[in-house]
């Protein structure tokens, strides 16, 4: 499964991630103890199958999967290690069950009843115009185009109620800046204790004291500060409308609040940048940010800013995101990805009446396994992704 050159491998989008202590030996001991106890624990056969395979992969890593194995092995990446090290033993089984399906199912195109990860945008509006972002496309971000708005608290609660208990990874953010939402603190409070991989992506420009407390009280597992530079003018050239000085002050304040008021917090903080041009350097980023966050990373650039103007390409490898994530926009529109930021591929609405089908499944589950999504997956699996727009112009695999 080697995608052709010129593709964006979503599974490996981190270029590098730096953190201080990976806790590897302690995590391995806990995994061994869990594996030994697993036969005595009350899980369904399906859960046992997944957890057993996850333990086998993590405890006996082999860089090259045996030819007889259908699935690549689950690997203990730096961020996975850090996440496990902050989990209680009670939550470890849930985490392994989620993580295997999040990482491996998209690589083997295996489907479950619910997406391994759900991304929910409190708002599609952003106060920045980053050079690599679809917010620079005025046909999207101009208010008169109809793509801008804020999610109602009622719809947010409906979406969270459907996701809770069905998936562990919930990301608050997609096309807009979540901290712009006037009710973000209530939204955060509503998600508390419902997910093991609750993530918030923010540019940190609006991260004041109240919001810092709301994030930490909600037990957000990972806060990603989207920052691509350690100095001006590079920062504001990339993060247009942003000011590094303000962002630095806000992130430092967040760290001080975490240390002073939440010493038991398990929240991971990460400064994560898009590697867009040659003069961005991770060593410099690490030197500058390491005292204030737990992790510093770069992810690969993908031309998010103009998906629909990209040339039609010859990529035939299926897009793994179709088995990994589903997105809910501010107005309830459900979409397979945010590369398609103008919702050409929309699947339906997250709220309202249930579509026809199995009444025991909730609406998000029905859309995830429904005909429209299956038709798109089938096109990708039969190497016909060119029949769908904008998949025909997208290089994500
Ligand atoms: S546009 Fe198509 S190929 Fe690209 S990320 Fe979205 S679903 Fe995948």
Secondary-structure element order, N to C: EHHHHHEHHEHEHEHHEHEEEEHH
Q: Give a short account of the largest sheet.
A: 10 strands, mixed
Strand order of the largest sheet: 1-7-6-5-4-3-2-8-9-10
Through-space gap between termini? 10 Å
Keywords:
single chain; 397 residues; alpha/beta; ten-stranded mixed β-sheet; 10 strands; 34% helix
Could you characterize the architecture of this molecule?
The structure is a single chain. The chain has 397 residues and is of the alpha/beta class. The chain contains 14 helices and 10 strands. It has a 10-stranded mixed beta sheet, sandwiched between helices. It is globular and about 55 Å long. Iron/sulfur cluster (SF4) is lined by residues 319, 321-322, 336-337, 339-340, 390-391, 394, 396.
Topology, please?
Elements: E1 14-19, H1 24-37, H2 45-59, H3 78-85, H4 92-103, H5 105-108, E2 117-120, H6 138-141, H7 153-163, E3 169-172, H8 184-191, E4 197-202, H9 209-217, E5 222-226, H10 234-238, H11 244-261, E6 268-275, H12 282-289, E7 295-300, E8 325-328, E9 333-335, E10 348-349, H13 363-369, H14 371-381
Bound molecules: iron/sulfur cluster.
Please give a quick description of this structure.
This protein is an alpha/beta fold. The chain has helices at 24-37, 45-59, 78-85, 92-103, 105-108, 138-141, 153-163, 184-191, 209-217, 234-238, 244-261, 282-289, 363-369, 371-381, and strands at 14-19, 117-120, 169-172, 197-202, 222-226, 268-275, 295-300, 325-328, 333-335, 348-349.
């Amino acid at each position: 499964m080697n995608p052709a050159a010129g593709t964006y491998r979503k599974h490996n989008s981190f270029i590098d991630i730096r953190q201080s202590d990976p806790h590897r030996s302690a995590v391995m001991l806990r995994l061994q103890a869990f594996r030994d106890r697993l036969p005595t624990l009350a899980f369904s056969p399906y859960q046992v199958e997944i957890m057993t395979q996850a333990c086998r992969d993590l405890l006996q890593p082999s860089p090259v999967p045996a030819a007889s194995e259908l699935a690549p092995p689950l690997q203990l990446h730096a961020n996975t290690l850090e996440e496990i090290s902050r989990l209680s033993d009670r939550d470890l089984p849930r985490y392994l069950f989620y993580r295997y399906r999040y990482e491996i199912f998209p690589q083997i195109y295996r489907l479950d009843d619910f997406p391994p990860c759900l991304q929910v945008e409190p708002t599609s509006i952003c106060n920045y115009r980053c050079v690599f972002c679809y917010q620079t496309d005025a046909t999207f971000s101009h208010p008169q185009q109809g793509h801008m708005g804020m999610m109602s608290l009622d719809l947010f609660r409906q979406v969270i109620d459907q996701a809770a208990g069905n998936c562990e990874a919930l990301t608050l953010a997609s096309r807009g800046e979540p901290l712009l939402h006037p009710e973000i603190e209530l939204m955060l409070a509503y998600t508390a204790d419902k997910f093991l991989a609750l993530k918030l992506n923010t540019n940190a420009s609006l991260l004041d004291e109240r919001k810092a407390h709301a994030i930490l009280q909600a037990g957000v597992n990972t806060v990603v500060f989207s920052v691509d530079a350690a100095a001006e003018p590079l920062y504001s050239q990339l993060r247009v409308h942003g000011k590094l000085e303000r962002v630095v002050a806000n992130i430092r304040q967040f760290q001080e609040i975490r240390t002073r008021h939440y010493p038991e917090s398990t929240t991971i903080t990460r400064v994560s940048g898009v590697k867009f041009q040659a003069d961005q350097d991770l060593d410099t980023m690490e030197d500058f940010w390491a005292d204030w966050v737990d992790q510093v990373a770069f992810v690969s650039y993908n031309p998010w800013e103009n998906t629909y103007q990209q040339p039609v390409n010859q990529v035939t490898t299926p897009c793994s995101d179709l088995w990994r994530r589903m997105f809910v926009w501010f107005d309830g529109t459900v979409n397979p990805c945010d590369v398609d930021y103008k919702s050409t591929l929309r699947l339906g609405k997250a709220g309202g009446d249930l579509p026809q089908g199995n009444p025991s499944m909730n609406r998000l589950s029905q859309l995830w396994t429904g005909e429209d999504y299956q038709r798109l997956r089938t096109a990708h699996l039969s190497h016909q992704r060119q029949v769908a727009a904008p998949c025909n112009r997208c290089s994500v695999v």
